Amino acid sequence: MNFDNYDTGGFYDEMFDAQGVPRPGADLVVQRINSLPAEELIRRQRAAERALLHLGITFSVYGDQSGTERIFPFDIVPRIVQGKEWETMERGLKQRVHALNLFIHDVYNDQKILKDKVIPEELVFSADGFRKQCIGLKPPRNIWCHITGTDLVRHADGNYYVLEDNLRCPSGVSYVLENRLVMKRTFPMVFEACSVQPVTDYPSRLLDMLQGLAPRGVRDPVVAVWTPGIYNSAYFEHSFLAQQMGVQLVEGSDLVVHKGQLMMRTTKGLERVDVLYRRIDDDFIDPNVFRPDSMLGVPGLMEVYQHGHVALANAPGTGVADDKAVYAYVPDIIKYYLGEEAIIRNVPTYACWRPDDLQYVLENLDKLVVKAVNESGGYGMLVGPHATQAQREEFAGRLKAKPRNYIAQPTLALSRVPVLVDDHFEGRHVDLRPYILYGEDPYVLPGGLTRVALKKGSLVVNSSQGGGSKDTWVIDSKPSK
Amino acid sequence: MLSRVADSIYWMNRYIERAENVARFIDANFHMILDLPLGAQEQWSPLVNTTGDHERFAELYGEASRDNVIQFLTFDRNNPNSILSCLRSARENARSVREHISSEMWQQVNTFYLMVNEAAPQGVRMDLPHQFFVDVMMSSHQFVGITDSTMSHGEGWNFGRLGRMLERADKTSRILDVKYFILLPSVDYIGTPFDNILWAALLRSASAFEMYRKRHGRIDPEKIVDFLVLDTKFPRSIHHCLIAAESSLRNITGGSRGSFSNRAEQALGKLLADMDYVSIEEILHIGLHEYLDATQTRINQVGNAVFDTFFAQQPITDLGKSKASEQIQ
User: What is residue A435's three-state secondary structure?
Assistant: First the structure.
């Protein structure tokens, strides 16, 4: 199989430049793949899929009685990121997460940024992720968001842009680790040839960071990952991370507040928990404070947390800063707290609550992507150029009724990567989600999760809507080993 | 160890052991029938009795035939004790404790489930049923081997072995009970070659034929019962299973033999002590069926006591919630 007939289709391609020449760092991979017979590449693709199935990295097909399970679709051609580019992204991500943490702490404490009118107060207070119960909280070292997964896209101009900050319970990192494992089995000789930055370190980094959050005076802190249970779509990841860190995976029914401490029920009685990496939404963690009908939560947890007897990662209330309306202000936030320009740009965003912007959006619906600020997973959005006239009219009505709920952005020509389709390669659009751990020593996992819109021409990379993934290789373009 | 986790490891092992036993019953029956004289009645409904699901079977299928019994015991999703259902439950349990068991164990349970699930659409029409049931037994053995060589022999491992041994003791007692009941009155066959064939089939249903030969030589009903109930060295005899279960329970609690600190230790200790000192003559005098029936009840009681002692979520304060949902016995 080779790339001879591969067509970049006029898009920015991550593997080849406009002349069809492999980009720096990608040449070795291209060479190796070109040297494989077609059947061999297909055979390896199947082998990789089988490996994922037997590793149990699957999700159940909803409503299917016969127990059918699918793997999260995976393509074996890696996505290459050049080491030099990565350095810039790494700095940009650390800068962004640093500023967002200062912002969250400020919003729930002094509210200086609101008093200085850098961002409209009502916008912050009406954000879906704002939790008034968190006002006055002071988490250890004033860090609220310990684990972040930032969605980046590359536009036709070759620049990366931040599409979305995920500051609550970003998922997907387990796919990065498992994809790498499978790729090492599938293409050992390519790894030998290029120096791909390793990702296996992530669980140890995560554990170090979590242990660093332990309440003062606790030696050998007990860390646990809190999952909503085996029916949660990210359950595999929760158990995977707990296993890789060697910590307990707990469900709400395992936990109880006893004498001012958070405890878990064991075969030998109650045992204290010091740090909880929770993968469950704010609303469900404590029915005494948040949603009273939560069956998953632990009554009294927030009180233990407020007294500093247990640490939560991420802290409750971080969602205020990944609201799509607040997103529009992140460059201002960075400037306000750090006095710096954002290293990675925002996608230009029209805030529909500003009358001028709304006017522009309504006039240009056929060119824009409109997003509901409180929706995620690719739902509640209109991709203007791909929509019908009727869909656009319907959206226009919604915009006029509730402008606060919408932002609009130009349709980006997302970059593409080659994907194995039957017996040849075709270009498909991708995004990139790097993961940032923010503790004493901030860490960015090299690469991150590349999500691919596997449907031809589609721009939606979400797994719920036909997306798949690829391994992401950060390759130093220095001479190879 | 979390109570929920201990519970899941225990049940994961029970379900896999259960699937293995069902496969063995079916396979042994297949072979026995091939050896019977033409015109002899095929014995399929006793298999359903062995798993204790005859009422559900009658409801779903009515009259027992070869095909519907095999379908019911192997692939029926409505039968919680079918091989497929057992593996689905084992896998659900394994999924919920994935971070406690080794990756190798998880992969084995997962691959095992996928194998059975892929065979399910063909059902009883499958090509080589014998091979399928052998694969099921072998996968279960692999699971036990992988468990023993990749998981620390600590609390979790002991809960697993406790579950597996209680399940195996129960199944050996059921197979013996049902077969003995059928075999004894078949006077037609006494003294004929078929008599031997049927008794040998009973031994095969517990994978005991070869080891029995080495221990006792000739086929002798009394010695067979002695071997399957009281032998301490044969790994599927009831006595052996209870010794192993008791040893795991002691490892979990740290208690010593001859004393108890909870109901589980008490129930299992008593049961084992009785078996240590009972003779085959006494068992036959009581009546084998009565003895086995009482033993099954007591094994069940041990299971309940294990649940109450280790798995049940005791309410701590008024905040505590009870989740008590015992899995299918």
Answer: strand
How far is residue A230's CA from residue A236's CA, in Å, rounded to a whole number? 8
* Phi, psi (degrees; rounded to nearest 5) at A352: -65, -15
User: Is residue B39 very low, low, confident or very high in pLDDT (cuts 50, 70, 90)?
Assistant: low
Task: Enter the ipTM.
Answer: 0.72
Q: Evaluate the CA torsion angle B109, B110, B111, B117 in order and state its sign.
A: positive
Distance from C-alpha of B46 to C-alpha of B39, rounded to nearest angstrom: 18
pLDDT for the residue numbered B321: 33
Q: Do B2 and A267 touch (CB under 8 A)?
A: yes
Q: Is A159 on the interface with B (CB under 8 A)?
A: no
Is a pLDDT exceeding 70 seen at residue B192?
Answer: no
Q: Which domains does chain A have, with CATH numbers?
A: 1-130+145-197+321-346+421-481 (no CATH), 348-410 (3.30.1490.270)
Chain A: nearest CA to B310, how far in angstroms? 5
Confidence of residue A480 (pLDDT cuts 50, 70, 90): very low
3-state secondary structure B77-117: CCCCCCHHHHHHHHHHHHHHCCCCCCHHHHHHHHHHHHHHH
Spatial separation of the C-alpha atoms in residues B42 and B31, rounded to whole Å: 11
The answer to whether A254 contacts chain B (CB < 8 Å) is: yes
* 3-state SS assignment for residue A253: helix
The per-residue pLDDT for range B265-318, each reduced to its tens digit, is: 999 999 999 999 999 999 989 988 899 999 999 999 999 999 988 987 654 433
For A48, the token pair is: 């990789």
User: A180-189, A246-255, B110-119: which has the minimum mean pLDDT?
Assistant: A180-189
Q: Does A65 lie at the interface with B, CB-CB under 8 angstroms?
A: yes
For the residues B41-50, what does the mean pLDDT come to?
Answer: 80
Query: Most B CBs within 10 Å: which of A265, A286, A303, as the mutation test of the B interface?
Result: A265
* Closest by CA position to B160, among listed B275, B14, B34: B14
Q: How far is the C-alpha of B177 from the C-alpha of B49, rounded, in Å?
A: 10
Within 8 A of A251 by CB-CB distance, chain B residues are 4
Q: Is A299 on the interface with B (CB under 8 A)?
A: yes
- Which one-letter amino acid corresponds to residue B207? S
Given an 8 Å threshold on Cβ–Cβ distance, is A256 in contact with B117? no
Could A54 and B114 be called an inter-chain contact, meaning their C-beta atoms sit closer than 8 Å?
yes
Of the partner residues B2, B107, B155, the one whose CB lies closest to the CB of residue A54: B107
When comparing pLDDT for A350 and B189, which is higher? A350
Identify the burial level of B62 via C-beta atoms within 10 angstroms of its C-beta, where 0-12 means exposed, 13-18 middle and 19 or more buried.
Answer: exposed
